[in-house]
Amino acid sequence: MAITVAVAGASGYAGGEFLRLLLAHPSYLSGEMGIGVLAAGSNAGQTLAEHHPHLLPLGDRVLAETSAETLSGHDVVVLGLPHGHSAAIAEQLGPEVLVIDLGADFRLKDAADWEAFYGSAHAGTWPYGLPELPGARDALRSTRRVAVPGCFPTGASLALFPAVAAGLVDASDITIVSVTGASGAGKSAKVPMLASEVMGSAKAYGVTTHRHTPEITQNLKSVTDAEVSVSFTPVLAPMARGILTTAVAPTTATADQLREVYAEAFGDEPFVHVLPAGVQPMTASVLGSNAVQLGIEVDERAGRAVFTAAIDNLAKGTAGGAIQSMNLALGLPETAGLSTVGLAP
Predict the structure, then answer these.
(1) pLDDT tens-digit profile of 290-307?
(2) CA nearest neighbour of 14 among 140, 154, 127
(3) Catalytic residue among 97, 151, 239, 332
(4) How big is the CA angle at 104 (ends 150 and 222), to the nearest 5 degrees?
(5) Would 3-149+316-330 and 152-313 be classified into the same CATH topology?
(6) Would you identify the CATH topology of the domain 3-149+316-330?
(7) In terms of CB atoms within 10 Å, which of 148, 161, 276, 287 comes out highest?
């Protein structure tokens, strides 16, 4: 029988991107995987085409109410819900169901961090959906619960963890700035996301308080016993999608030493590409793909390593990472349905 996949939050950007990728998945194309219930919150009762006219094969699907009852009976349930809303539904789904949470509910291990940054009770921790992080790939194989990483932690963690793990940077003094497109804020109407507010302007937000800070810190702490301290600032830029991260940390290493470590860390990774010296990542190069482009340089005058990373926040940063993790959990080829080819121009 075909593997059935239900998606809650199907009218949002993350849910829509997951469906876009799933429609091109070889298991779906072969009939070994089917798309079941598509659910939404306030948009229930409307057709998917009203929210995602680009998803032509599914356009006439009517969005169902989001509940454990409508989602039960599927082999895979993807939860693209606001933070804090996944746990209540997940606990009502059986242990045999592969539940993939695109939200933050199960990412953090430290309950105090969750409560400080999200302001509610900690629901627990699930295997973390960033296979490139040491130990994560094995934890994802055959699991039935996946916490998909946040978009900013995806790029920042991949940019930094090899250097932190090798002890080549001072992890107690890390500064990260990530420039992101407006889709990262979700699809609900917000005044700061209006075209007249975003176009022709850039704005820092969540300064010193962004919820992805403890997640980035947690990921880096997982690869070292050294002290880790992260200062993270996101910047909203006038583009629809994409994240360009710049991470800086003190170092005494040379660029060649760093490149050697990164070549070893990512040499067999299908989606992470370390660029040649002097070449910097561009968000336009990874749009629509699961690729990660990394740049590595050393500012010798300042004694700092500078790491840059470009990802598509909706693809590798959310839905692509979910597909990658789903493949591992189901025993499918990890790269199935995912491309490293971006859209250009």
Answers:
(1) 999 999 999 999 999 999
(2) 154
(3) 151
(4) 65
(5) no
(6) Rossmann fold (3.40.50)
(7) 148
